[in-house]
Structure formats: C-alpha cells, structure tokens
Amino acid sequence: MKKIIICSLLAMSILSCKNTENEKKAEIATETKKDSIVEEKMTITQISDTLKKSDYSKEFAKYSDEIINKISENMTYVLTKEETARANDEEYLKEITSFKDNIISLYWETCGTGGCVQHQKLQIKNNDLIDLGNGYEKLTESESKKLDSEIKSKIKNYSYISGRNENEISITKNGNYLIGIRGLTDEDGEATGGTIEISYETKDLKTYIPSTLKITKIN
Fold first, then answer.
1. Helical segments of the chain, H only
2. pTM, rounded to two decimals
3. Residue range 17-37, pLDDT digits in tens
C-alpha cells in the first residue's frame, strides 16, 4: 500500500514538473513569437477606418471616403533601418494635433531629439486635398532669399528661420494663406524656437505678398 502511495506521489510530482516545464516552454514560445512579429504596412482602408474612429471622428464625418483616403495617403512615414538600427524599415502613423477650418495639422518625429520633429498641414478644398507642408518650405528659392534679406534689413543679428516650430497657417477673408513662422538671432539657441515673429500672406505658397510682411522682435 505504501509503495502504491509513494509511486502515485512520485508520478504526480513528475507530472507536475512536466506541466511546469511545458508551461515555461509555452511562455518562452509565446514571448519569442511576440518578439518576432513584424507588423505589415497599414492599407489605405485600414488607415481611413482608424481616422473615422479617432478623436476627430466628427470632423472626418463631414467628408467623403475619397477625401479621407487622400488624407490617409499622407498619414504614414517610414524610418529606415539605418535610422532605427533595426533589421527592417518601419512604417508609422503621423499624429493629428489639430483639425480646424478644413486644415489638418500633422506631427511626427524621426528620432528622439527636438531637431527631428516634423510638421505638415493638409488643406481640404473643393473636394480635393492640398499639401501645405509647413508653409514656409513651399516658397521658391528666390522668394526665400528675398524674405531673408527683408528680415535682415530690420533685425541686424537675424540668423535663420527656425525649423523646430509648428508654423501657423490660416486662411484670410480674401482667400490668401496667412503664414506665421519664427526666426532666430545670433544669440538665440535653437531649442528656444527663435525670438523673431514673422508673418506674411501668399496666394500660391510659392511667393509672398511683400505688403503683408510683418517682422517683430520678441523682447
């Protein structure tokens, strides 16, 4: 009788050990599987569905699927394996920071520092989508140089336009774009975003209207 009990206990102990070992193996296999999962690129349809369920669902409800699909095409960015030090290129979704007056503001980062912050504006107009970029970057090279010269004539120690700020873009009553940007002086640190406030109007984003240019030094 004692032998039977001892054998039974021994068998139960062995079975318990095997179950524990199997559970550990299952856990390890699960963890390995999770680590090895590589998300597939999101389709336009998947992104569109995500936008419709986002915090801006009420805003997106006003527009057709065609427009939302066009927006979705602008919603992703890719970090290369060289940028991430990972095995493959990786795709991410941009973040919507505001959706006002038919203008969507997008934000994303390509690395962990302030210099890697990116901003983009999308305008919905006449059932079409216009990429406004960050506004200032759409100026032609000659117009950009002319603007720099104008700023320099009023702010002697002006250095350059800041790339870290989210530029302001709005529509005026006459239909022009009003662009608000910041510039740095020789004394400003890049992280400050600059102490020069600059605004101008433009009809086509490529050229600015000189009479609308305003330049102010922040004390």
1. 2-36, 44-52, 57-60, 65-73, 81-84, 141-154
2. 0.75
3. 445 554 444 444 433 333 333
